[in-house]
C-alpha cells in the first residue's frame, strides 16, 4: 500500500477575531463580578476568595460555620477566632441593610385609569364596581379593592389630588 501524503491545514492567523476582546472575555470569566458594593470596594485581587472573606469577617461557604454537637464531646472545643482586618465592611453592610429601600413598584396606566374611573363612578362601593360594564376582566369586589389599595400605595400624591378634584366637582 502506497503512503498517501495528507494535505495539512497550515496554522494561519485569523484576522476576523478581535484578540483584545477575547482577552477581556477570558479575564471576566476568571474574576467574577461582585454584586455587593461594600465587598467589591474592600476586595483584594492578590488574595484568595476565602482569605478576602475572612479579612472582612464573613464566612466563605457554609461548611464549618455552625458547630455540630456530638454526644462524644464532653467539653465544648473553643475555636480560634479569625482576626477581622476589615470590620468596616460588615458595619457598612448593616447600615445599608437597615436603610429602607425606596418602593420602585408603580402601577400601569391602564390600572390607574381603571381605578380612577371606578372611584369616580362608585366611590367605595366595590360590589357595584364588580358589576360595572367597564370591569372587562370580571374582577371580584376584593380584587378591585386590592387594586384600589395598590394605587393608593403606589401614587399617594396622585390619589390625593384625584380625590380633591372629585370633591371640587361635587361642590360646584
UniProtKB/TrEMBL annotation:
Q: What name does the UniProt record give this protein?
A: Nucleolar protein 16
Name its GO BP terms in alphabetical order. Answer: ribosomal large subunit biogenesis
> Which InterPro entries would you find in this protein's record?
Ribosome_biogenesis_Nop16
Claim: Manganese is one of the keywords in the record:
no
Where in this protein does the record put region Disordered?
A: 1-32
Native organism: Astyanax mexicanus
Q: In the UniProt record, does the keyword DNA repair occur? A: no
The family this protein is said to belong to: Belongs to the NOP16 family.
